[in-house]
Amino acid sequence: MPAPFAAPHPFVYLASQSPRRQELLRQLGVRYELLLPRPDEDAEALEAELPGERAHHYVMRVCVAKAEAARARLVAGAHMVAPVLVADTTVTIDDAILGKPADPADALAMLTRLAGREHEVLTAIAVVDADGTLLQPALSSSRVVFAAVSQDALARYVASGEPLGKAGAYGIQGRAAEFVERIDGSYSGIMGLPLYETAALLRAARIDF
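Above: the chain's sequence. Below: its structure in token form.
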């Protein structure tokens, strides 16, 4: 346990390329520096599903694996010591995990599956403290209901390019907002960084904000 009088850290490393997560950290007033995978790292391999894995276990496992990889990257790169923040988001429906679509056809198939139905968005977050200790990860779970959207509307959305690179093939903060009938949970969590849980973890890691 760190001493209660330990000096706070002026910033956190964010191990994510997501501009949405960066935007949400700025919303909290958190200063951050990016700590992205090196060219020789196989970041995609960390997101591979295990046979029969449930979505809740999957997203937590991947988040912790990313946190461990980010901490190793920090040490190997001889960076200034500071806590590291990692997050992972997935969409699940019918016990299936919908990650990032492989291509536009895959994106359309995912969106067709979501149209007119309720699905769950899971975002796990983890913080590795400055001393290398992994704090207890947190999980945000939200329910999202899509309206019964036409194939033409879905195809136009896919053609915009927005679904690529996003879990479940959509971003709620973008054009897909017109498909969302209602949500139950954390809007920021659906975006990719639940602010309530994130703030609590950053306070535990003594980030100054």
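The chain has a mean pLDDT of 94.
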